[in-house]
Amino acid sequence: MQAIILSSDDGWHIKELKNALKKHNILSKRVAFKELGAAVEGSFHLKNREEIFDEVDYIFIRIIPGGSLEQIILRMDILNRMSALGKKIINKPSVIEKTVDKYYTQFLLADQGIPTPETFVSEDFEQALEFFDKWQDIILKPLFGSLGKGIVRITDEDTAYRVFRAWEQNNFVYYIQRYIEHGNSDLRVFVCKGEIIAASKRCGRNWKTNVARGAVSKKVSLPSHIKELALKSASVLDLDYAGIDIVLKNGDFDDPYLIEVNSIPGWHGLQQITDFNIAEKIVELLLQ
């Protein structure tokens, strides 16, 4: 059996997945998304500069690169085409389409009764200011993105004005959430095929709790209602595997808010406090 891993570089996660797949006798190769080409009514379906991938059984998505609207649509089209041809894509293209868009993800979860932060989204500068004035302490996020990049906390009116103008000039969407005091920590719950395989408390140097932004992962014991919240979120979105991020208002386990669902999750920080190989567990569950 064969697999390709879509990623821009051979980082730690790619090496972990390759090693885990090898243990199941699956040959794998890292392929750059931007180098893919697809054909219709030709002698092949999918290739890059070097080879044809028609015999591939699995496609692991480790990045959806930024790009123009046309580029993003083409990448998703290729994934949907490969899925229709019977390739096992992890996570499914329909799931990726939902979860790369923070607003789309949030309303799907909120509509199922999952607690999420108060949020306002718009393209309108004046309404963005209106909601800053209303809440006074906000998080401004890119609609697309991960690892905590580009996320800004704003508590000052003049700063809000200047940042919102810059957002407007760059044709960005205002995705605004009311800040939830969380003691510079959150929970990362790693779900795979309806099972929680690992979890951590991420403690940041400031309000950002991403490991990529310097946070430290610590062991944590999850209450049953937090486990249920994470599992329900993964089920609502039909995720094969996911990183579910939950903040506890003022550190209270009885007041949780789901702030992010990662359909291309990292687990480097989590691996450091877990006594089994997470990549091997992911592959084992996905191949069942």
Automatic annotation (TrEMBL):
One of its GO terms (cellular component) is cytoplasm. PROSITE patterns: ATP_GRASP. Keywords: ATP-binding, Ligase, Metal-binding, Nucleotide-binding. InterPro entries: ATP-grasp (IPR011761), ATP-grasp_RimK-type (IPR013651), ATP_grasp_subdomain_1 (IPR013815), Rp_bS6_RimK/Lys_biosynth_LsyX (IPR004666). GO terms for molecular function: ATP binding; ligase activity, forming carbon-nitrogen bonds; metal ion binding. Residues 106-287 form the ATP-grasp domain. It comes from the Bacteria. It holds the Pfam family RimK. This is RimK family alpha-L-glutamate ligase. The lineage of its organism: Bacteria, Bacillati, Bacillota, Clostridia, Halanaerobiales.
